[in-house]
Each structure stands twice: as structure tokens, then as C-alpha cells.
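Task card 7
Instruction: Convert sequence to C-alpha cells.
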Amino acid sequence: MKQVYAIILAGGRGARLGADTPKQFLDLNGIPVIAWSLQAFSAIKEINGIVVVTPDDCHTQMNAILSEYGSGASRLVVTGGETRQQSSYNALRCMAFDDEDILLFHDAARPFITRETILRCIAETELHGAAAVYVHAVDTVTEGDNGFVTAIPPREKLYYAQTPQCFRYRIIRDAHETALSRGITASTDDVALVKNAGYAIKIVEGDGINMKITTSFDYELAGYIAERHFINRSR
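Output:
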């Protein structure tokens, strides 16, 4: 029987944020940043299990957070790799998934993922085998090289990538194995691996509030959003 798993990628150190604590463990309106994603995925009955990818020296801390905020689904902590690609691949190998299982890869640094977006991802992946969340670009995006503008692509066809990125297990496994066979080891995007392996990916319309915490300004903005819009998701 097909199962659905949330893979929460929390293997980074958040160097660009400038904090001593990895950003997934920072306080966000009373609970750790990663706890927001854990609560969101745990509240969905269609999710059968949650896998959290984290640095090796953070297992104890992460297991404690999982025990408190990850109820409602089976839970597993997996050690991440040196790159996002390696961390995703470690998650793929952490248990015996079925070929038709659905895996949702989500950034721990995106705390405001909504139930509606998660369910749309699952539904589109059931239909198409691969789907990912995007929002339309609202700014002009420019290509540059050596300090000069080289191209300005039409904004109407451009999107900003978010997560989750969702795949049938057989598809994402094949994509990673194909990449490794070609010597690709440091990709920052699972969708890119899936596309390069020859699969189509369905676009799921995302939500602007599904922001990623990368800089100190992002962290301050997330605190404002958490306090004003997600009172029921914190304590």
C-alpha cells in the first residue's frame, strides 16, 4: 500500500544568518523553527511518516524536538551529508520505501508551509509522479556575467522555487542514481536532478508566506509573521 513521507531537510548550519545556533533550532515565537514544519506535517493524516535530516551532532536535540512536536506519524532522524544532494540521498536510503510511495522534501527553514499546499503537492504527485511548489516571479529577473547584464528573461514565464518538492520514490531514487553516475554530487535542487533524468515536474502554485529564513532580516520578518498570522501554531 502506498505511503506518504515528509522529508524535512535540516542539515545546514545557517552560516548566512550569522547566529551561533543552527537556524532550525532558533526560537520562533516560542518554539524552534523546525517545530513549525513538524506541526504542519504531523497534523495531516495522509502523512504516514516524517524523516528529519540533521547534522550528526544534533541528533539528541532533534529527537527531543520530534518527541514534543512530531506526534501523529512515525518519526526518524537521519544524518545529513556535506551537500543538500547528499542529505536528500541519505534520506532516500534510510528505510525500505516502496516504488510508489510519495516523498515530500521540505526545507526546515520554511516554517510557514500550509496544509493546503501540502495536500496539493500530494494530489499532483499522485497524478504526475513529480510536483514542486513555485510562486510567480513579481520582480524582473536579470542574467549577468562579469558584472554586466547579459539577458532579461520574460517575467511571465519565471517562478520562484519553494518547497515541498514531491516525488514518487522510484522517480527521485532514479534521479539521484542517474546524477551520481554522471558525477553530479553537489546539486542544490532535487527538481533539477529529476528533470535532468528525463521526468516532467508539475508546478504547484505556492504561497508568498512560505518564505525561507536565510538572513537575519528573514529571521526578523519570520518573527513578525509568526506573531501576527500563526498564533495557533505556536505556544
